[in-house]
Structure formats: C-alpha cells, structure tokens
Amino acid sequence: MSQVKEATAKFTQNACKLIYNEAYAAGIKAGNEVGVPKFIVGDAIGLSQEIDYSKPTYVLDGLCGFAWVDIFPARGSFVTFLKSQGIGNKNYNSGYGIWIKEFGQSVDRKYAFAQAFAEVLTKYGIRAYAGSRLD
The domain containing residue 104 runs over which residues? Predict the structure, then answer.
C-alpha cells in the first residue's frame, strides 16, 4: 500500500483498486460489528400488543433505511476508477455518490459501512462523507 500513502487526488488505476478494496473491507467489518436490536413483526392478537405467533412473523435486523458515501468533487482519478467499475453515480447537486447495498435494509449496519468506507477514503486525501436516512 506504500504507493497510495500520499494524500493526493492523483492515483494510478491499481492504487485506486487498492484504496477501494481497503475501504470496502473496512465497511464490511464495521457493518458486521454493529449490535442492532432485533424486532419481531407480526399480527397482533385483537387490539392487544401481543403477537399472534400462529400467523407469519418476521425478525427485522433493526430499523430499515438507506446509507451512502458522498465524494467531493465528482472528478479525479478515484472517481474515474469508480465510474470505470460501474460503482456509484453523479449526485444531483454535486459530488459523486455510492449507495450502500450491503446489509439488506438495516440502516445501522449500512451507515456503519458508509462511515468506515468514508474514513478510509479520507485517510488518502479523498474528501468523503457518510449519510443515511430511515425508510
């Protein structure tokens, strides 16, 4: 990784791949380490708050939502690499965005992924921020 240590906007294609792989691995690790509450969802018995377990029930992995990483500006060798790999797209207003598809609908796990991913990019001088919202 010594070739990507410099905090510069100019990276080789190989350096971009190494940075992306490091950021992705950090995101997966962070998402897996999140302890989120489990919710049991199902039909209630009458007007009570008790679940009728004779009907289908589901266990949700925390709250549902979305997370992403925004990269500013939407140019440079790293963004060019992302485009060449079909990763992310240009944001409506500015910047380049990567929507987090990992971890199903869990906003907690997705946001942890996005934060860790953005931290790795920032380490290499790429201005990146994590964002999230509930569904």
Answer: 2-35+63-134
Name the domain count of the chain.
Answer: 1
The answer as to whether 58 is a domain residue is no
| pLDDT tens figures, 118-127 | 999 999 999 9
pTM above 0.85, yes or no: no
112 domain residue, yes or no: yes
Quick: pLDDT tens for 78-106: 999 999 999 999 998 789 999 999 999 89
Is 41 a member of any domain? no
Mapping DSSP onto H, E and C, the string for the chain reads: CHHHCCCCCCCCHHHHHHHHHHHHHHHHHHHHHCCCCEEEEECECCCCCCECCCCCEEEEECCEEEEEEEEECCCCHHHHHHHHCCCCEECCCCCEEEECCCCCCEHHHHHHHHHHHHHHHHHCCCEEEEEEEEC
